[in-house]
Amino acid sequence: MSKAKDGYGFTPDEHAQVLVSFIEALDLQQMTMMVQDWGGPLGLWAAGQVPKRMRALIIGSTLAWPEYAKQRPLWVKMMMGWYIGSESGRKRVMKGNQVVVGYTTYGGNVGPRKMSPDVKQAYVAPFETPASRLPTWVFAHHLFGGAGQDFLAAVEQGLAMLRDLPVLFVWGTQDDYTTAKKELPRFKTYFPNHTVVLLKGVGHGYHEVAPDETVAAVRAWWGEIAGRLFENTLSAVHPIQKQRGKKR
User: Fold this and answer.
1) Which run of H or E residues covers position 99?
2) How far is the C-alpha of 64 from the C-alpha of 185, rounded, in Å?
3) Which stretches does DSSP call E strand in 135-193?
4) What is the CATH number of the domain that holds 151?
5) Angle between helices 149-158 and 39-49 in degrees, nearest 10
6) What's the rounded Cα separation, in Å, for the pair 243 and 82?
7) Among 5, 28, 33, 174, whose CB has the most other CB atoms within 10 angstroms?
8) What is the pTM of this model?
9) Are 164 and 193 a contacting pair, CB within 8 Å?
10) Residue 182 structural domain
């Protein structure tokens, strides 16, 4: 894996800006972006910076506003805020890799198919040393320690730039970290052109423990919107030809 440059702080702001730079460097167009967990605020902030490059969004088990931490159950606040995201939690994370191990053992591993040893290893492998685990603590610290409030406010503000995009929401009904009951209603207000698929008995890592159901949801949704997206793209690229076709 590549290494971060000297001075890189691993903050959400920095990660999100790297993503924008990546998109612009490759000149990506007509993107359909799928976001989950911490990738939600990062990807949605980036998408809000380049809305003309976006075609659609797939959103699940994530967040996009600064009130997130305050709305969590007490046990989540204690675990993610004090046990992991606090300054004292930094030592625990760097010693025991609690963020990744916790995700692959508990919250992210609830569903009809448990993560295989190979999948778990793929999550754990990048964080073999104490120093390599620091970025996972930085994220928890920003989400629950207050350091990331300005960034999360900017994420929510940028959602208005994406309002017209078709959106698929895929959510596990057993997600205790970003619950469908609390997150979905607010997301729906920002994306009126949405489809919702709830996966029963599935937790936070829905794409890992219910991959077949997730793929089926995406394919069904894409089949419904593909024709409309193609027409919109065609009219944007060839407006004159389309108008002539109508006259005939």
Assistant:
1) helix 98-105
2) 12
3) 167-172
4) 3.40.50.1820
5) 50
6) 60
7) 33
8) 0.89
9) yes
10) 32-247
For residues 25 and 104, give the distance between their C-alpha atoms in angstroms, rounded to a whole number: 33
Sign for the CA dihedral angle at 194, 43, 204, 150 comes to negative
In this model, does residue 107 exceed pLDDT 90? no
Between CA 176 and CA 195 the distance in angstroms is: 21
Query: In this predicted model, what pLDDT tens digit does every residue of 36-86 receive, in sequence order?
Result: 999 999 999 999 999 999 999 999 999 999 988 777 777 677 777 778 888
Three-class DSSP category at 128: coil
Q: What is the mean pLDDT of the chain?
A: 89
Give me the number of domains the chain comprises: 1
Phi-psi region of 234 (alpha: psi -120 to 50; beta: other; left: phi over 0): alpha
Residue 189, classed as helix, strand or coil, is helix
Per-residue model confidence as pLDDT tens digits over 122-181: 999 999 999 999 999 998 888 877 788 999 999 999 999 999 999 999 999 999 889 999
Rounded to the nearest 5°, which phi and psi values hold at 145? -100, 0
- Cα-Cα-Cα-Cα dihedral sign, residues 221, 205, 69, 140: negative
The 10s digit of each residue's pLDDT in 228-239 is: 776 666 555 554
The position carrying tokens 């959510």 is 171
Is 208 within a domain?
yes
Which amino acid, one-letter code, is at 183? E
